[in-house]
């Protein structure tokens, strides 16, 4: 089974299916879901590749976790490459669930790990000071545990990049999925011109990086070029830096046919 599953988890009252519903809506997917939907396909079609992935939606509580749950995770964990935890951003206690779930999911190699805070129907009466401390705690925990926090309702883009649903989509689309089919710049669709331009940029970058690779000092030249690119990337806004990282990863894939290392290469630039 391909490692192409996106596991979306949250308590029933936090409506994790809403996050998936908005992703499908934003990407013009025809699939329709409701609170009883547990599995839904999603087609990723971006500038770099096409991939068929699948959302798995669950509303289990951590106290329901037992040996049977752990056994189930051992069966499914290796096909999950994105994990989205949904909680109520106005109820600090709802965030505690991820700390318990993390004991299980940390055993698996999952590239995309997101904590999505959304407002439930019943807004909490938690006072402002407690909420500020809550958000600080979220930021600290997510940084320490290799998660990214995303405010579901905040969809305003900033200089640092996208937010809200757009950022969730971006995180999922920039992952190098195991079953991804790379675009070669000659596909017959409405984005053909843009794809050709992109692949030409990737090809030009590959030529710059590897033009002297067969020379005696070719490896040293490659390392120097990568260092210069990384230094240049640090001066770019977040979105532009992610774009550069993806192009570098694609150039390596073109040169060596790499798959598993692509995400590591991207991480070097992010």
Short summary of the structure?
With 270 residues, the chain is α/β, with parallel strands linked by helices. Helices cover 46% and strands 17% of the residues.
Q: What top-tier CATH class of the largest domain fits best?
A: Alpha Beta
Radius of gyration: 20 Å
Q: Note the beta-strand portion.
A: 15-25%
Report the sheet with the most strands, covering strand number, pairing sense and barrel closure: 7 strands, mixed
- Calculate the mean pLDDT score and round it: 82
Classification by helices and strands:
alpha/beta
Number of strands: 7
Protein name: Increased recombination centers protein 6
InterPro entries: Alpha/Gamma-adaptin-bd_p34 (IPR019341), P-loop_NTPase (IPR027417)
Structure description:
The chain is α/β, with parallel strands linked by helices and 270 residues long. The chain has 2 domains: 5-173, Rossmann fold; 183-269, no CATH class. 46% of the residues lie in helices and 17% in strands. It has helices spanning 16-26, 67-76, 92-105, 128-144, 164-173, 192-210, 218-233, 238-256, 262-269, and strands at residues 5-10, 39-45, 49-58, 80-88, 112-118, 148-151, 181-182. Strands 1, 2, 3, 4, 5, 6 and 7 form a 7-stranded mixed β-sheet that branches. Helix 3 (92-105) links the parallel strand 4 and strand 5 (112-118). It is globular, with a radius of gyration of 20 Å. The model has no long low-confidence stretch (mean pLDDT 82). This is Increased recombination centers protein 6. It comes from Piromyces finnis. It holds the Pfam family Adaptin_binding. InterPro entries: Alpha/Gamma-adaptin-bd_p34, P-loop_NTPase.
């Amino acid at each position: 089974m391909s490692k192409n599953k996106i596991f979306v988890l949250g308590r029933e009252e936090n409506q994790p299916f809403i996050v998936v519903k908005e992703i499908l809506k934003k990407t013009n997917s025809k699939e329709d879901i409701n609170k009883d939907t547990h599995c839904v396909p999603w087609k990723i079609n971006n500038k770099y590749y096409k991939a068929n992935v699948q959302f798995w939606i669950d509303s289990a509580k951590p106290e329901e976790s037992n040996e049977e749950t752990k056994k189930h995770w051992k069966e499914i964990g290796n096909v999950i490459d994105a994990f989205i935890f949904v909680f109520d951003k106005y109820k600090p206690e709802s965030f505690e669930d991820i700390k318990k779930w993390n004991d299980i999911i940390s055993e698996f190699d999952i590239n995309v790990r997101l904590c999505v805070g959304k407002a439930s129907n019943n807004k909490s009466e938690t006072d402002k000071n407690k909420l500020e401390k809550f958000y600080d705690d979220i930021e600290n925990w997510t940084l320490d545990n290799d998660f990214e926090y995303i405010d579901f309702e905040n969809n305003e883009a900033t200089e640092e990049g996208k937010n809200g649903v757009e950022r969730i989509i971006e995180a999922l689309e920039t992952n190098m999925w195991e079953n991804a089919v790379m675009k070669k710049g000659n596909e017959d669709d409405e984005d053909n011109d843009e794809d050709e331009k992109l692949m030409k940029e990737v090809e030009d970058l590959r030529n710059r990086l590897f033009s002297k690779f067969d020379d005696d000092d070719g490896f040293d030249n490659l390392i120097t070029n990568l260092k210069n690119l990384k230094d240049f990337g640090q001066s770019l806004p977040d979105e532009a830096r992610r774009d550069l990282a993806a192009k570098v990863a694609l150039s390596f894939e073109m040169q060596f046919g790499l798959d598993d290392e692509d995400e590591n290469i991207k991480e070097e630039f992010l």
